[in-house]
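Figure caption, in words: inputs first, then the predicted bound structure.
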Amino acid sequence: MNREDCEIVSNIELMPGIYLMWLQAPEIARRAQAGQFVMVACGTENTLRRPISIHSVEDDRFALLYAVVGKGTERLTHLQNGSKLDVLGPIGNGFQVFPMPAGTLSYLIIAGGIGIAPLRFLAEKVKPWCRQIIVLQGAATASKLYPKALLPKEISLTAATDDGSAGHKGFVTDLIPSFATTADVIVACGPMPMLKYLAENQTRLKLTGKPVSISLEMRMACGLGVCYGCTIRTKSGLKQVCKDGPVFDLNEVIWDEMARI
Ligand SMILES: Cc1cc2nc3c(=O)[nH]c(=O)nc-3n(C[C@H](O)[C@H](O)[C@H](O)COP(=O)(O)OP(=O)(O)OC[C@H]3O[C@@H](n4cnc5c(N)ncnc54)[C@H](O)[C@@H]3O)c2cc1C
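Bound structure (flavin-adenine dinucleotide present):
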């Protein structure tokens, strides 16, 4: 893991309340794996760093896609091009991306809200081995859907919005049964209730027998496996989301015992 004083290359409001920030960080960009995250020092008042997923990597730069939810992320919005951000990373296990013969896999990516953040990088990484990549994206409303133009062009995108302003009216999980049967690999990231719904409705969603990986966005304090603040119960014992995750097998997690849901 590296600590880098990264230069901010750009920091724009991509969708309402959601920002895309590009950072110059050669070491982090070189080592980043899809599904990993960084711990960001958002400002001097915030003693704790905030975990944000690696959203994209290009040459010696990487991007963060962050939703403004509190003090830390709000501070990030004020950072200007050319200023520095203290970042630790890359951290976490990331998604398993097995090199396969070209065109082998059908990949189904399920993104709820800001859950698209780590999944765009994953789509980019698995592209060479996929005959198809389907992204199911859910958001509250049309303006909060991640722009299709920023996804790899090979992707087939289907949207759902809570208010019906674009795509299917309802939750992104409503779309899953129509796509899951033909998928070889399924990955998901989104709010905890969405992930819990996947775990508890596998038959209805046609997920039974499929490898389903999820990325958990738990609250975490250190991000380094020291404080045990992000500990969860799994079938193979207690795990720390920062160190052992954030990516887990859907069926490994003991959902009933997730204290923070
Ligand atoms: C591994 C990992 C990767 C993440 N990747 C991203 C990402 O790519 N983009 C992004 O926008 N966010 C991501 N998050 C969530 C992000 O870390 C929090 O939104 C952020 O820490 C909030 O900081 P804050 O100071 O702005 O808000 P705070 O003042 O700390 O909190 C404000 C509100 O946000 C909620 N909140 C805080 N932390 C989390 C959390 N970890 N998960 C869910 N709700 C939270 C709190 O309940 C509170 O109501 C990730 C979290 C983890 C653990």
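The radius of gyration is 18 Å.
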